[in-house]
Automatic annotation (TrEMBL):
D-glutamate N-acetyltransferase-like N-terminal domain sequence ranges: 65-139
Domain D-glutamate N-acetyltransferase-like C-terminal: 145-338
Listed InterPro entries: DgcN-like (IPR011669), DgcN-like_C (IPR035086), DgcN-like_N (IPR035402), P-loop_NTPase (IPR027417)
Native species: Sphingomonas aliaeris
Origin superkingdom: Bacteria
The protein's name in its UniProt record: DUF1611 domain-containing protein
Length: 349
């Protein structure tokens, strides 16, 4: 699978990352926390030579398992941390593996909140070996306060019932579908994985709260009237920890259309035990109510399901039933097909 979106415009930070990558999975045991690795596997497979996991890890991308030395022999130029854990921390137990990669001749690329240079001894070792420490989760140095001014052009935002269930994949798939239809568009990355795929963007969860909406305005500036910005959503308006990022992104994006992303079968909020997932209807209602503050004409274009845990027949049946119940097209953008074509058409209507 390959993304077909256009590159990020110059209004967002752009970093040339050393590719190809060795994906580092650390000791992750929850697939949702390895979404960076899965995103790169699915949308930038040509840039990944394999994966490297520590003992105790139970999650795999399915790529060949390599040590840093073996990856370097196969042409890897960097080891990329493919984990997006709670708090964006780099555990002490990873330090030896990061130094191993440096000694194998690989640069380090990270999308964590914690900075690579803050890990004791890592910066000195990188300097000694002439290797780079690259932190992707760093916003531009200067960001504006949001104006709320309505911008020219069209915008679509992916929102979710929770974290890590398909907002990035949906945005990439929609951008690709528009390109295939000959429609001008940009995929606008707002998280570390999207930035690693697209080569640029703004890491919204690293932006100071007062500048969230302004960063979103900066990311999707004025454009031709028929141009679409397809904006990668973050978090959920219903998440007890991350709702602030979602709201700032919604207000600053001023989407004309939004797509609700959901994983059937998930019942509790990721990383927040005791919190039930909101219903799709609740997410639609809240997004419209809050989104109207900066775009009175906001509407829901449909629902994106992550049906990776279902077989094809079960997925088709569920999406058809829920589409009938909700009165909106429901599709899995990864499965594609007529259901996804209908979802795209409704967004463009």
């Amino acid at each position: 699978m390959t993304a077909h979106a256009h590159p990020i415009a110059s209004t967002a930070s752009t970093t040339m990352l050393p590719q190809p990558y060795l994906l580092f999975l650390g000791d992750v045991t929850e697939a949702g926390f390895a979404k960076t690795a899965f995103g790169l596997r699915d949308w930038a497979a040509d840039s990944c030579v394999g994966e490297y996991a520590l003992p105790g890890a139970t999650v795999s991308t399915g790529l060949v398992q390599l040590t840093p030395a073996q990856a370097a022999e196969r042409g890897a130029r960097s080891m990329l941390i493919g984990v997006a854990n709670q708090g964006g921390i780099i555990p002490q137990g990873w330090r030896a593996s990061l130094i191993e990669a440096l000694n194998a001749g690989l640069d380090l690329v990270s999308g964590m909140h914690a900075r690579l240079g803050e890990i004791p001894g890592l910066a000195d070792e990188a300097a000694r070996l002439g290797r780079q420490l690259i932190d992707v989760r760093v916003p531009p140095a200067t960001l504006p306060i949001a104006t709320g001014r309505k911008r020219v052009g069209k915008r679509l935002l992916t929102v979710g019932t929770d974290c890590a269930l398909g907002k990035k994949y949906t945005a990439l798939a929609i951008a690709g579908a528009l390109s295939e239809r000959g429609l001008a568009n940009n995929f606008r990355a707002t998280g570390q994985t999207g930035i690693m795929i697209a080569g640029g963007g703004i890491p919204m969860d690293a932006v100071v709260a007062d500048f969230e909406a302004g960063a979103a305005e900066m990311l999707s500036p004025d454009a031709d009237p028929d141009h679409w910005d397809i904006i990668e959503g973050q978090g959920s308006l219903f998440h007890p920890a991350y709702a602030g990022v979602s709201l700032g992104l919604l207000h600053g994006s001023q989407p004309d259309v939004f797509i609700v992303c959901h994983e059937p079968g998930r019942t509790t909020v990721l990383g927040a035990p005791g919190y039930d997932l909101p219903s799709i209807e609740e997410v639609i209602a809240a997004t419209v109510m809050l989104g109207r503050r900066t775009n009175p004409d906001i509407r829901c274009g449909g629902i994106s399901y992550n049906t990776s845990g279902l077989d094809a027949d079960e997925a088709d049946r569920l999406m058809a039933e829920d589409g009938e119940r909700l009165g909106l097209p429901v599709a899995d953008p990864i499965r594609g097909g007529p259901a996804f074509d209908k979802l795209v058409a409704n967004c463009l209507a």
